[in-house]
């Protein structure tokens, strides 16, 4: 059945998903099995529109520095980062903290 989640890209990061800031997604894994690492892989393969933009989001197999990651409005560092177990209804927010100017 999959895990229904909401994924948001803020701070200009929506450029990697064709300008779409909010995505409702179904991660094709069972609840209790999927982790944040699986979600990052899902985003890389299913939401990032151009493979050339993957390095904007991923570095060394994880979310690159300069991107704030929130899980249900809580910093992912407090939630176990990549080990967090996904639940239906979760909201994942990725915000670029790097701005030009």
From TrEMBL:
Its main location: cytoplasm. InterPro entries: Beta-grasp_dom_sf (IPR012675), Mopterin_synth/thiamin_S_b (IPR016155), Urm1 (IPR015221). It is found in: Cytoplasm. Pathway: tRNA modification; 5-methoxycarbonylmethyl-2-thiouridine-tRNA biosynthesis. The modification 1-thioglycine is found at residue 101. GO terms for molecular function: protein homodimerization activity; protein tag activity; sulfur carrier activity. SUPFAM superfamilies: MoaD/ThiS. GO terms for cellular component: cytosol. GO terms for biological process: cell budding; cellular response to oxidative stress; invasive growth in response to glucose limitation; protein urmylation; tRNA wobble position uridine thiolation. C-terminal thiocarboxylation occurs in 2 steps, it is first acyl-adenylated (-COAMP) via the hesA/moeB/thiF part of UBA4, then thiocarboxylated (-COSH) via the rhodanese domain of UBA4. Keywords: Cytoplasm, Isopeptide bond, tRNA processing, Ubl conjugation pathway. There is a cross-link at residue 101 (Glycyl lysine isopeptide (Gly-Lys) (interchain with K-? in acceptor proteins)). Belongs to the URM1 family. Acts as a sulfur carrier required for 2-thiolation of mcm(5)S(2)U at tRNA wobble positions of cytosolic tRNA(Lys), tRNA(Glu) and tRNA(Gln). Serves as sulfur donor in tRNA 2-thiolation reaction by being thiocarboxylated (-COSH) at its C-terminus by the MOCS3 homolog UBA4. The sulfur is then transferred to tRNA to form 2-thiolation of mcm(5)S(2)U. Prior mcm(5) tRNA modification by the elongator complex is required for 2-thiolation. Also acts as a ubiquitin-like protein (UBL) that is covalently conjugated via an isopeptide bond to lysine residues of target proteins such as AHP1. HAMAP family: Urm1. This is Ubiquitin-related modifier 1. It comes from Suhomyces tanzawaensis NRRL Y-17324. The gene is URM1.
């Amino acid at each position: 059945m999959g895990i229904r989640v909401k994924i948001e890209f803020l701070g200009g990061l929506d450029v990697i998903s064709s300008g779409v800031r909010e995505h409702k997604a179904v991660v094709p894994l069972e609840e209790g099995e999927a982790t944040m690492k699986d979600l990052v892989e899902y985003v890389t393969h299913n939401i990032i529109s151009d493979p050339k933009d993957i390095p904007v989001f991923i570095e060394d197999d994880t979310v690159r520095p300069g991107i704030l990651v929130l899980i249900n409005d809580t910093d992912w560092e407090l939630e176990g980062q990549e080990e967090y177990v996904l639940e239906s209804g979760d909201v994942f927010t990725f915000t670029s903290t790097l701005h030009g100017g």
